[in-house]
Amino acid sequence: EIRDGVALISMSNPPVNALAIPVLEGIEAQVKAAQADSGVRAIVITGSRGKFSGGFDITQLKARTEGEPVRNMSDFNGVLNSIVEAGPKPTVAAIENLALGGGLEVAMACNARVATPEAQLGLPELQLGVIPGFGGTQRLPRLVGLPKALEMMLKSKPVKAEEALRLGLVDAIVPPDQLIAAATQLAKDIADGRIPRKTASLDRAKLPADEATAKSTFAGARRQAKRVKHLMPHPWLCLDAVETGVAKGFVAGLATEQDAFAKAASSLACKGLVHLFFASRSTAAVPGVTDAGLKPRVTKCVAVVGGGLMGSGIATACALSGVRVLLKEINQKFLDAGMARVRANLASNVKKGRMTQQKADAIYSLCTPCLTYDKFKEADMVIEAVIENLDLKQKIFADLERSCRSDCILSTNTSTIDITKVASKMRNPERILGAHFFSPAHVMQLFEIIRTDATPPQVLVDALGLSKQIKKTPVVVGNCTGFAVNRVFFPYTMSACLLVDLGLDPYAVDNAIRAFGMPMGPFRLGDLVGHDVGVHVGQNFIDDFPSRVYESTLIPGLMKSGRMGEKSGKGFYVYDAKRAAAPDPEGIAALLNASRAAASGRFKRSTSGELLAMTADDIAEMIFFPVVNEACRCLAEGVVVRASDLDVASILGMGFPPFRGGVVHWADQVGAGRIAARLREWCTAYGGIYQPCPYLEDCAVQGRSLAEGPLRGPDRSKL
User: Given 85, 125, 384, 448, which residue is catalytic?
Assistant: First the structure.
């Protein structure tokens, strides 16, 4: 479209105008045509349907990580350099709503940028294990300065329009209804010489003036990237590209960017992060339920029974998303404490600059304290979040059935108790489902929705709808001990305790698990959660899966000595007033000796020499392979809809390293054959916790991935 001598080129690829290959080809063709048209004196590039562009088409990156042939689009840089940025006619980007990744790279190649007030601009490619590939590593530092550019890229941190204007990333901010007119006028002003034409690739004004400053900036950034370079190479590769451009110029930097992008895209980290991106977007799809034409009912009011840490966190999560909350407790003291926790959660956001005090007060006003069920007729959903006591829960749900509307969803936040047992004294037990949040509930993104055989599809659709309302990632789980995350990870600490009983240092175990990529090791995690909680949850698995657990006296001994973890000031570690952890080998030495003595004679062969030879990778495998084994049992039992749901749950619920793609995805990179072989070896030496399950054995024998699952038939493994 040509308006008064200005060509308007609009990208269209719903929902976010992703830069798929046809879109890139279209940009090239349309800009070339406009540059060659004698009736055109300037060009405006924009996006359709209220968005500029969300970036490069990630399905292309997914295909690349899966080994499929894809077209190399690096030549699109030539289009941006020669005909968008340096063509005979100036270009202006009209940015509405978002310009991310490749979208921002297209905009930065333009000679000017106009944005709407709500626009977000950023280069979040590192979240997918790659780096900007259309000149972003070169133009962004030249437009906003080196320190800010590194922050935006390495932290995948976008900026809003107002900050972008201050930085020089955009030239003007206008209301959406004036965007095209303003961009068109700016384009004409540049074409007519009233405003200077800028070329980002040639501008060095915002780059460090001296080599020493640049080297110091890069040295600081590389110190952060070096710690994870062997696991996640892309931050280091990104720095390579930026540094080359600063030191040797735009052309050399662009060449390094292309080489670095190719290396990053072929890394295991990229493969894992791209897998996670798509897996997390599929968890809400439940065959036979979400494809049956049912629409979720909007949840306007949630009642939370129990105002402890979990209940107050759930109340906060709902209120933060504009859902009205009824918070019930058994007495005024507990109720006041629960409401105070909600207020404290909001105050933390104010302190961190995430919201104003006025907004926090408005959110808090959505929470109504209750001592009775009188207001529960207003609730669309009830979430019970009291202590793990079956009798108490059964009584509560009998009361709720009498107090709530017949269309109100009744749910329990239990992490351990069979849902059908909780519902056993209800008149209509099919009304109940599990709504398992992870603590702190207003921070953690995972939301396990536990269905029973009797759960109506509409109830499940409504629960999935709530997860979207409160911005959680749902995983639909079958009713079993521990559900998904706790079930899969119950061997995690048990295997760590077994290693310590064999003679390994617990701090060496924690260090190995942190080196693997976990935020903390199993013993530090136990301190954080509280060892009494861990033992209580673990007892369910000892009761239900006695043949495949390892019972150590280590943690019970710790508890008897008063070392409950952070809350008592000491556990495996000791804690100062700011809760900073420090190893305490002398403090736990006697407990280690006692536990090892109790375990002596339980193992079939001496392992002292093997222990001395164990690397950090060996330790990680001995702890995570039984976790993989339990994940295989869950897949065999149909506990989750798909294998990738366990990947998402393991990352969001347990902190499994995102760059490894999740527990099943990582296991498939290792290979079922290797995992099964190692587990068989350990099972012979150390017992049933390592006994490989038939699902894993069959995949190993048949050469199938764990995500695919074994073929059904008579060729079952006899190993």
Answer: 125
